[in-house]
């Protein structure tokens, strides 16, 4: 038996990094009353005889408790390491267990000692999660009430489990979630190469090791050092760029290529949304789910999980028990231990029957960057009017069109730039952009295919730009289902590739990832367009760049192109 001091936000507790609520106060929350009993490497049988491995952290007291499951391919042994690594996302056991919850951290099949072969977000993975949940519910220390927790892949498995409707699964808290594997791998047809490739390689490296590396020797010393309050506090603002570098570093170590190489090849061999991707798409499966779900994300996670948050919200539109929160910068730092008070209010309500106040008020809360305040909404997106700005030939971004065109070369050759930008005049008043922007682009290309890569910025009076959001489109996958689309939200099936006619103007609808930003009076709005974000003169958000398409092309943008920004009514 090992006892831990409780983590939390009260004096004398190990202080958690990051915001802990969406600016709200709660009542009747569980207090830290228990020590911890821990069982490592517990085998969990699933229906085909495979055994998954799990670490179980639970209160050191008699009786039965609700359980919170976190499941992913990442090493379960590292979840208490305290390092600022993107794989440490299962939540803080020393917060949950003292407050009367069992925290079960499991490895998916084929990862870090679990039996079988990893299959990447497919039907097999969903069946395993059903069996894991029901096994936990039947343990003598569990009262049959099971929730799930964790961010990123740990959030994805929550949504996978929900589609199977396990009888004992009572509530979810998926933050930074993705519900379509396609969306995490391709950005509207452009392969997110600098994420996908190192991710699969890193999974191979991490799965090749076990307790000797993750629990003994140097890792023991690291745990002591990383637990020093001053050291831990420094991680509160760790951003995605730093952890992306860490992922790339890990991916360079040698590892067994099976099954990671085959899965990576499969991603590359399926450049359109076909049956392979359909098996890894949860949207239709979520339509009948009524399990309570608290969705969340952070506005800065544009290049990976933020689009999935809104896909999940849409997929769960008939579920009466869904809430959603969007956080500002550093809302979900690593190791993940932010938003635990909010999650406690959620799980105390659904798993313990406490009246915490979590369901009071509007269903949506979001941070308005630039305004630096919490806002609420009853629906997403909130009612807004799309303001149209022309991409003018003189480089201005303005309500009135100044006819003409501008060209760039995808390789920066032929005395042409490799990117273009359009900037507004200083704004005469504040503009609150909340929702889904869109670019209606009219352009000509010398190639049969090219990539359209957008970056929207807020430029301060001193000229300092702040990245707000991005958008992408592979030109050959431009087809829009107009009947299913609305302003700001074109539906792109991505089922086929249709070469563009070289030298002829073509109209495109390019969605930018939804966001919330107050462009303050005196600031400027800037839109940057390129076709190659691997160049040093273009810095994509989160450093996620794409496999180039249409090498050595000249692209020409016509001033009839319009940037549509959703501006809140009354602003």
Note down, in words, how this protein is organized.
There is one protein chain. The strands form six sheets. A ten-stranded mixed sheet has the order 3-4-6-5-7-8-11-12-13-14, with helices on both faces. Strands 15, 16, 17, 20, 23, 26 and 27 form a seven-stranded antiparallel sheet that branches. A four-stranded antiparallel sheet has the order 18-25-21-22, with no helix packed on it. It contains 13 helices and 27 strands. The protein is 21% helix and 28% strand. Helix 2 crosses helix 3, helix 5 crosses helix 9 and helix 5 (193-207) runs antiparallel to helix 10 (260-269). The chain is of the alpha/beta class and 571 residues long. The model has no long low-confidence stretch (mean pLDDT 96).
Strand content: 25-35%
Helix content: 10-25%
| Low-confidence sequence ranges | none
Rounded mean pLDDT score: 96
The tally of beta strands, per DSSP, is 27
DSSP summary: helix tally:
13
- Give the overall shape, derived from the CA principal axes: globular
Helix-strand makeup class: alpha/beta
């Amino acid at each position: 038996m090992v006892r831990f001091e409780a983590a939390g936000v009260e004096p004398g507790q190990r202080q958690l990094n990051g915001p802990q609520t969406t600016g709200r106060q709660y009542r009747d929350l569980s207090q830290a009353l228990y020590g911890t009993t821990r069982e490592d490497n517990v085998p969990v049988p699933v229906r085909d005889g495979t055994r998954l491995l799990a670490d179980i952290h639970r209160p050191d007291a008699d009786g039965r408790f609700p359980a919170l499951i976190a499941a992913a391919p990442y090493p379960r042994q590292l979840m208490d390491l305290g390092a600022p690594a993107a794989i440490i996302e299962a939540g803080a056991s020393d917060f949950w267990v003292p407050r009367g919850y069992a925290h079960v951290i499991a490895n998916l099949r084929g990862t870090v000692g679990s039996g079988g072969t990893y299959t990447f977000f497919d039907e097999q993975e969903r069946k395993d999660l059903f069996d894991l949940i029901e096994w936990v519910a039947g343990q003598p220390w569990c009262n049959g009430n099971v929730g799930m927790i964790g961010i990123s892949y740990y959030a994805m498995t929550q949504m996978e489990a929900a589609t199977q409707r396990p009888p004992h699964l009572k509530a979810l808290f998926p933050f930074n979630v993705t519900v379509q594997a396609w969306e995490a791998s391709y950005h509207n047809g452009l392969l997110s190469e600098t994420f996908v490739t190192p991710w699969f390689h890193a999974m191979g490296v991490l799965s090749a090791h076990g307790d000797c590396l993750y629990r003994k020797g140097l890792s023991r010393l690291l745990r002591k050092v990383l637990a020093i309050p001053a050291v831990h506090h420094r991680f509160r603002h760790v951003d995605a760029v730093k952890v992306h570098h860490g992922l790339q570093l890990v991916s360079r170590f040698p590892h067994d290529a099976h099954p990671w190489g085959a899965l990576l090849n499969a991603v590359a061999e399926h450049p359109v949304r076909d049956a392979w991707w359909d098996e890894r798409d949860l949207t239709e499966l979520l339509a009948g789910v009524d399990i309570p779900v608290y969705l969340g994300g952070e506005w800065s996670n544009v290049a990976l999980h933020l689009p999935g948050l809104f896909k999940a919200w849409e997929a769960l539109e008939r579920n009466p028990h869904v809430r959603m929160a969007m956080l500002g910068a550093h809302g979900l730092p690593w190791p993940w231990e932010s938003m635990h008070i909010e999650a406690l209010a959620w799980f105390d309500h659904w798993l313990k029957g406490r009246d915490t106040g979590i369901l009071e008020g509007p269903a949506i809360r979001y941070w308005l960057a630039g305004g630096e305040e919490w806002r609420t909404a009853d629906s997403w997106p909130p009612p807004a009017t799309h303001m149209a700005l022309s991409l003018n030939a003189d480089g201005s971004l303005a309500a009135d069109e100044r006819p003409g065109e501008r060209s760039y070369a995808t390789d920066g050759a032929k005395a042409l730039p490799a990117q273009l930008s359009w900037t507004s005049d200083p704004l005469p008043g504040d503009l609150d952009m909340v929702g889904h922007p869109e670019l209606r682009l009219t352009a000509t290309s010398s190639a049969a295919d090219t990539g359209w890569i957008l970056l929207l910025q807020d430029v301060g009076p001193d000229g300092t730009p702040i990245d707000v959001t991005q958008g992408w489109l592979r030109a050959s996958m431009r087809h829009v289902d107009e009947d299913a689309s609305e302003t700001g939200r074109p539906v792109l099936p991505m089922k086929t590739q249709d070469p563009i006619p070289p030298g002829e103007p073509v109209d495109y609808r390019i969605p930018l990832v939804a966001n919330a930003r107050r462009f303050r009076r005196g600031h400027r709005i800037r839109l940057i367009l390129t076709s190659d974000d691997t160049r040093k003169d273009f810095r994509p958000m989160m450093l996620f760049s794409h496999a180039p398409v249409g090498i050595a092309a000249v692209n020409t943008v016509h001033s009839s192109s319009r940037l549509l920004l959703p501006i809140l009514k009354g602003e």
